[in-house]
Specification:
By secondary structure, the chain is of the alpha+beta class. The chain has two domains: 82 residues; 123 residues, Sandwich (Immunoglobulin-like), CATH 2.60.40. The chain is built from two helices and twelve strands, in the order ααββββββββββββ. The longest helix has 39 residues.
Length: 232
């Protein structure tokens, strides 16, 4: 299922990542809340101690209300501590995602997708065919216009490369750019077969301002979760 065997190469640079304003904002809010509850709790204890010291021994104050308020203060403080812990876990997860994403820069990745870059008259997709089938392939340019269509026999198997040399159905050489492949298939019993498509390309940069980080491959962006494998 190939015309010419050549893989698109993408290059670029990765900008320096800015700081995470969302994590900083959450931390500042939790710190302010902790300061406020601490101040209120200290004022409450001072008031309680003063009242207990100056109460009438023959008519002591009802301590049930104070006990309830102590429980409420403790509950609020526990909630703030929980929020702090969650904020820390989110920050650690974001750091781990960023570190993982940066490790992909310069490597050739295989990701789920159907749009590949035609570079130097070569674009490659990888097709997963669950059973022996006849494939109907159509390729459209960035404006959605179909420029190529063809029928191919295919054996069952995953990650089978389909390389297009950029020649349209009418024999016209198409310019470099992004092209989208659509594949339908029928088996020997004329049943419809679902075909999976993947693309590969060099990770040229990483956008760490997004959560999760976005990898740039052939002018498109993908999350780390969309990466199926790393070839080098």
């Amino acid at each position: 299922m190939s015309a010419n065997s050549a893989s698109p190469i993408v290059s670029g640079t990765t900008p320096l990542p800015p700081g995470s304003s969302s994590s900083a904002g959450a931390g500042a809010a939790n710190a302010l809340a902790s300061q406020q509850i601490a101040g209120n709790f200290q004022s409450f204890l001072t008031l309680l101690t003063t009242q207990l010291q100056n109460q009438n021994p023959l008519d002591p104050l009802d301590t049930n209300q104070f006990t309830q308020q102590l429980v409420e203060f403790a509950g609020v403080q526990q909630q703030i501590n929980t929020n702090d812990s969650l904020a820390t876990l989110v920050s650690l997860q974001q750091t781990a995602q960023s570190t993982q994403a940066l490790g992909f820069v310069g490597k050739t990745a295989v990701v789920n997708g159907s749009t590949a870059a035609l570079t130097n008259s070569s674009a490659t997709w990888e097709l997963s065919v669950p059973t022996n089938s006849t494939l109907n392939i159509t390729i459209a340019n960035s404006t959605g216009q179909t420029v190529y269509s063809g029928t191919y026999p295919a054996q069952a198997g995953n990650n089978q490369p389909f390389t297009w040399n950029g020649l349209g159905t009418d024999g016209t050489q198409q310019p470099d750019g992004n092209y989208t492949l659509s594949a339908t298939a029928k088996d020997s019993a004329n049943n419809t077969v679902a075909i999976g498509t993947e693309i590969q390309g060099v990770v040229s940069s990483v956008d760490l301002t997004q959560s999760p980080p976005l990898l740039s491959i052939g002018g498109q962006t993908f999350t780390v979760n969309q990466v199926q494998s790393i070839l080098n």
